[in-house]
Specification:
DNA-binding; 10 helices; 73% helix; Arc Repressor Mutant, subunit A; 2 domains; homodimer
Chain lengths: 222, 222
DNA sequence: CCTGGTACTTTTGGATCCAATATTCAATGT
DNA sequence: ACATTGAATATTGGATCCAAAAGTACCAGG
């Protein structure tokens, strides 16, 4: 019995730490701009600084944390311009992924997407934001993955990661949750009809709405 | 006087190791598919395994090396499909970068690009492949960078990195070198005229030629 | 001859310790 | 009062050591 406490603990400490750090960042437990004190964090996670540092290097590569030699790591603070740029890149990359995906769509993939969408709705009703972000992500990635371009999907996934902290904000709002569900339904419909360009359009609106909401949220003075 | 031997040595060992590893991979000193033995490499570079491992984590994030827990790192072996995918992603991303760049082009940027091109030609004449790849890279990045989208440029740069080993092969061939120079001239011309779409077309051909050559090179049976 | 298992070796993963660098803060002089 | 310098402290960077896992070679049994 290798400790069945919710999720099974990864085989290496770095992977465990990596997952914990991701959660800490996306949930806002580690806030943007905040420096990361290795010793304290390592003790808290009950590991030494070595695996922590390796996990931080991974996150640095993904753009989730920043690093300056001899000065340490800190959670990156995304400016509005940064957010817009990430969404711009996503727009370009995801459009390509969707076009390919639609051409290669199988019934199994559609079914998996529908399943994910059902989970999104369940989580939304329960008001479980983390579960909803997870299912939402699964919904989109399921489609992207069937494009048969693993590197492209990896890039897209990394871009999603880098804005996880902000996406949670978006889902915290009730009307936004409903909007997402409606848009997903539209997407599923268009996917069944294999209308790639229409799916791309819905996705673009999907993202624009998110950016718009975040702009409102992040602009303090109004 | 902190050792002025060619390049100044970076302030941390990981950065030094990182640079060395990049060189070793791009020059083929570490060959694709080959496992990376940490102890041996660390000793060779005269550092401990700790900074080496952190450098490897960075390279893992960039897709230059692969990693499997408890089994170690190895230089990634790109299949033809992988190469094609990288070039596809580059096509999409670079097109966007160029369109933005053309709109924001300044005389200084054009001048810097011309300077880089002069270096490319000098290196090509001397048959200095490493110098040529460096200058070539500078040429393209100079243009991309003036798009004002740092994250996009970072992505593009990473994609270039991941195929450095193969690009060197391409430049090893004389007619390819000439071809690159001609295409660069065409690009500079079109940049001066601010014809973004034409530049995109030239770039696409530029890449297609490289992919075609690599396909020929990497297909053993003919 | 092939298969499965077991001791042995190699290699990676992680903890601890020490060194190097940055930061803080108080003392000093202007 | 303010800037500057220098010691004390906190924090990161790196080396060494030990533990854990994977790989290897050899032997017994079929």
């Amino acid at each position: 019995m290798t400790s069945v406490e919710g999720h099974r603990r990864p085989p290496t400490a770095q992977q465990f730490v990596l997952a914990e750090l991701r959660r800490a960042i996306t949930t806002g437990r580690l806030r943007p701009g905040e420096p990361i004190r290795q010793e304290a964090l390592a003790e808290e996670l009950d590991v030494s600084r070595v695996p922590l540092r390796e996990a931080l290097k991974t996150l640095e590569g993904e753009g989730l944390v920043g690093y300056r030699p001899h000065r340490g790591y800190s959670v990156v603070q995304l400016s509005l311009d940064d957010l817009r740029e990430v969404y711009l890149i996503r727009r370009i990359l995801e459009a390509e992924a969707v076009r390919r995906a639609v051409a290669l769509l199988t019934p199994e993939v559609l079914e998996a997407a529908e399943k994910a969408q059902a989970d999104v709705e369940r989580a939304a009703e329960a008001g479980d934001v983390p579960a909803m972000t997870e299912a939402n992500r699964r919904f989109h990635m399921t489609v992207f993955e069937c494009a048969g371009l693993p590197r492209l999907v990896r890039l897209i996934r990394t871009l999603w990661d880098s804005t996880d902290a902000y996406r949670s904000m978006y889902y915290g709002d009730d009307p936004n949750r409903e909007r997402v569900i409606a848009e997903h339904h539209a997407m599923l419909d268009l996917l069944r009809r294999r209308d790639a360009e229409a799916v791309v359009r819905v996705l673009d609106e999907h993202r624009s709405a998110a950016v718009g909401a975040l702009e409102a949220l992040l602009t303090p003075g109004g």
